[in-house]
Hints:
With about 300 residues, the protein is α/β, with parallel strands linked by helices. It has a single domain (about 25-230, about 240-250), classed as Leucine-rich repeat, LRR (right-handed beta-alpha superhelix), CATH 3.80.10.10. Helices cover about 15% and strands about 25% of the residues. It has an eleven-stranded mixed sheet with strand order 1-4-6-8-10-12-14-16-18-20-22. It is elongated. The model is unreliable at about 15-25 (pLDDT under 50). One 2-acetamido-2-deoxy-beta-D-glucopyranose binds near residues 82 and 128. One 2-acetamido-2-deoxy-beta-D-glucopyranose (NAG) binds near residues 56 and 58. This is Non-specific serine/threonine protein kinase. InterPro entries: Leu-rich_rpt, Leu-rich_rpt_typical-subtyp, LRR_dom_sf, LRR_N_plant-typ, LRR_R13L4/SHOC2-like, RLP29. Its EC number is 2.7.11.1. It is found in: Membrane.
Amino acid sequence: MGTPFLFPIFLTLLITLNIFFTLTSSATLTTDQDALLAFKNAITVDTNGVLSSNWLANTSICDWAGVSCGIKHHRVTALNLSNLALHGNLAPHLGNLTFLQSLDVSSNNFTGVLPTELSKLRRLKQVNATSNNFSGEIPRGILTNMSVLEEIDLRFNKLSGELPSDICNNTPKLKKLFLIENQIYGKIPTSIYKCSEMEELRLSGNQFNGNIPTEIGNLSMLTLLSIYDNHLQGNIPFSIFNISSLQRIYLDDNKLSGSIPTNLDNLLNLQELYLNTNNLTGGVPKEIGRLTSLNTLTLYENKLTSMI
Length: 308
Ligand SMILES: *[C@@H]1O[C@H](CO)[C@@H](O)[C@H](O)[C@H]1NC(C)=O
Ligand SMILES: *[C@@H]1O[C@H](CO)[C@@H](O)[C@H](O)[C@H]1NC(C)=O
Ligand SMILES: *[C@@H]1O[C@H](CO)[C@@H](O)[C@H](O)[C@H]1NC(C)=O
Ligand SMILES: *[C@@H]1O[C@H](CO)[C@@H](O)[C@H](O)[C@H]1NC(C)=O
Ligand SMILES: *[C@@H]1O[C@H](CO)[C@@H](O)[C@H](O)[C@H]1NC(C)=O
Ligand SMILES: *[C@@H]1O[C@H](CO)[C@@H](O)[C@H](O)[C@H]1NC(C)=O
Ligand SMILES: *[C@@H]1O[C@H](CO)[C@@H](O)[C@H](O)[C@H]1NC(C)=O
Ligand SMILES: *[C@@H]1O[C@H](CO)[C@@H](O)[C@H](O)[C@H]1NC(C)=O
Ligand SMILES: *[C@@H]1O[C@H](CO)[C@@H](O)[C@H](O)[C@H]1NC(C)=O
Ligand SMILES: *[C@@H]1O[C@H](CO)[C@@H](O)[C@H](O)[C@H]1NC(C)=O
């Protein structure tokens, strides 16, 4: 019997809800626009004029060059400003783009730090900031706290500092960690094994020292291990040569000593093995002859006693 009274209440509720959602949705859209305008403001040189001619307040941000939005919610999901000769800093306001899944600012001339606010982006899967002039430390949260992050490419910058000792603590999806050619020092943290889906680990051309952690051997999906041109010392852990998925191993140009591990039977996919310019001793294991996929082996500049 109450239905005739309930119906208008229901309708009012629906209308109220609708107004509520419209308001919240435009409020968050404004947040995204503010964040992008702050990003634009922090650009000092826009060589090709892409932002100055295209990122205009009277058009929707979803139509701006390099910006992609979600179809339903019209929030910014991807920002791709690769290779536009942009100079300037990355505005910390990027951390307000809460729906962002992919950030590509590669091959520009950005300077300054990677803002710590980036680690607020809980949906971020991909970060590419390679080939810029970023300096300072990599924000700790990015390497320890991003539960869906899959790829991070920071090669060819001027990043320094040490990697956090709890790296990979809550980044279980990380498959590609590219830090080649920076100025990162200290040890490769043992907690790296927690990135159990890691496929490509590229740390070459830095100043890593200490031993290669045995725990790298727990990365059972690794196809590429590139740690050449560092200051690594000690033995090559046997565990690494147990990873059957490995296709390329670059350990050259370090201070590694001891003998070459002989447990090579699992490396059926190995194509390239670079061990040159270290301090390796002993003989060359005859097991190397069984690596049927191997096409490149470099052993020069060591103290090995026998050849194959
Ligand atoms: C948007 O503003 C710019 C100048 O700021 C103007 O040139 C352009 O015509 C405007 N576009 C629209 C669609 O109003
Ligand atoms: C960004 O755009 C460039 C050039 O269009 C493209 O090559 C690259 O794959 C894009 N990046 C991402 C993450 O999609
Ligand atoms: C966005 O980020 C900046 C800097 O991180 C902050 O000052 C600002 O209050 C944030 N929120 C909004 C809604 O813009
Ligand atoms: C990052 O961008 C560069 C081009 O600027 C591209 O060559 C590279 O493959 C990208 N990295 C990843 C992990 O996709
Ligand atoms: C980085 O800065 C140096 C000068 O400090 C410059 O020579 C180099 O071209 C810059 N690299 C990039 C990718 O912007
Ligand atoms: C980057 O900026 C530096 C300093 O302003 C300049 O020397 C260099 O040529 C720039 N590099 C590129 C690739 O634009
Ligand atoms: C990790 O994430 C939690 C929850 O979002 C946050 O409270 C904490 O400050 C983050 N830690 C770092 C190092 O960013
Ligand atoms: C790492 O691998 C070693 C040797 O296979 C194994 O004994 C150890 O339990 C593994 N550690 C973890 C945390 O999976
Ligand atoms: C290598 O793998 C074998 C089995 O395939 C296992 O018995 C051995 O403990 C492993 N060694 C290391 C150092 O992980
Ligand atoms: C190899 O070891 C010797 C001492 O045993 C040391 O003098 C030399 O610097 C080392 N070479 C490399 C490349 O680490």
